Amino acid sequence: MTEKKNAHTAQSTNVNAKATATKAKETAEKAKDTAGKAETTAKTAAAGAATTAAHTAHVAADKAQVAAGKAVATGRTVAAEAPKKAAAAAGSAWMMIKARKVLAAVAGAGAAAAGATTAVVLRRRAARRRRPLARLTGGRLGS
């Protein structure tokens, strides 16, 4: 009877082992399918990331090129206008140097004219205050 039990147990164990092996095989196939799907997803994500990175780099390069073009244009403008401004400033300075003698003469003449006018006005005021005899003698008699 024990041999019958052992034969029955061995047969049952054999059936269980086959069922377990089948389940393991199915699980392995599912894992293999899942791994394949994961690989496909990873490849797609990597390709998308690479495309996005390439696009971003291209846009950044375009922006840098535009900025560099503007900087070059501004530099050219400044470089073209700088000599003109310097020449205008130098011309103004040279005109002032050439005209300084004229300006000094005009200023001196103005000061001399003002001094002469003041002297004339003061003499006339002083002459009015004198008596007639002092006026006739130039102030020597009858002050």
TrEMBL record:
Comp. bias regions, Basic and acidic residues: 23-36
Biased composition (Low complexity): 13-22, 37-53
Alphabetic keyword roster: Membrane, Transmembrane, Transmembrane helix
Disordered: region residues: 1-53
Entry's transmembrane regions: 102-122
Descriptive protein name: Uncharacterized protein
Source species: Streptomyces asiaticus subsp. ignotus
